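Fig. S4 source data, part A: sequence.
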Amino acid sequence: MPATLAYHHARADLTFTWKKDTGITIRTGDTVPYWGVYPNALSSSRFSELPFTLSALRDVCDAWWEGREINTGQNFAERPWTTYEFSGQVQLRYRGGPVIEAALTEHCQPVPADSTDWQPIIDLAADDRTPTDVTVDWLFCRTSGWATGVLEHLGVHAPQHTPDPVRYGDGTQDSVIAWTIRHLPAQAKADGTLSAWSTWFASTAREVWNAPQGPTQWRNAGITRRPVTEWAPWTYQHSTVNGTRLNFLWFGGNSVYLTSPDNPRLATLDDATFLHHPREQATGPVLPWLQEQAREWAATCTTTQTVADILASTPGYALRHAPWRVELTGPGLSRYAPCLSEEEAYEVARRARDNAAQGEGVCFRSIFRYNDAANGVTSVCVQRRHPEENLWQAHSRPWNKHSPASDALIPRPRAASAG
């Protein structure tokens, strides 16, 4: 048996190399941008149960690149799966069979396997699953969604009107902090916000567990999450009218990338980005919306377009080359929020100004950073690009926290026309 296995994914133009007892490394081909679209490796801990064969490597890499669950063939009856939620106060496990169980604990202390505290908490049938198609990926996503559902049941986190597996669970930590400050002010002040929350949750969960019917009110709470990350990317494949294959890739950050195994020039351009901020821009569930954006755009590509023309027509190009931006500065801070219109720029700037004036963090849209937030903003300025000179010029009187002016962030009046 060889000590190293290799598999080349032609559509992605990626070569996966698996050395026995190590992770699977990824090497990009000539048609993939050199600036780090893909991770360097896949975690070895996820594949410890797999046989060291080329077919297993191929199945794993195909599933990963397509964003599907990876089935490692784990025998859950022999090696139960377990995880913790609520800062280590709830342990969940799956031992095979029709249900996932949960028990209360403290500080991630393992609950004895034969403890009577274990209660069924998620029915596989409620998610149209059977024991034969349970994967570790699904278990993590379902139990994480269950924790969000419990917070919704407790009134701590607002439920989504249309549950979206990609966004499900977003903002739960902020909800916990805000709820604790509002409902447990004395405890939060005395012990700290998270400590006050943990104490309250432990007491509440124990009441639920000790009720005659057990934790039935929390049974099957929430939905299965679909996180988009390096270990679970979103991809979509489409072909133009002349047969050029396009790959759309999203790893959960601000940028959705575009590659093509038929056009190496895409790999040499920094603008090979299809779209920015899919979470913020999506008008419905993110993944169906994103696929529709990609499908509609690809349908407009023609045989006469150059690579530059193709890239210039992407939604991401418009934001990267937006004619307006808001400059946010402070001690050791320099950030820019691109905007597509004057109205949007001033709305963003005034919101940033008001938050900064009150000492709050400023949230904004950046195309370069994953987390779009900054503290310590002391100056805000709206700027406009002059394409002829390729220069940015202030369009307003900048607002400065240390010397605020009454007319800051009001557009400068246009010069009167000669008459």
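Fig. S4 source data, part B ends here. The two ends are 88 Å apart (CA to CA).
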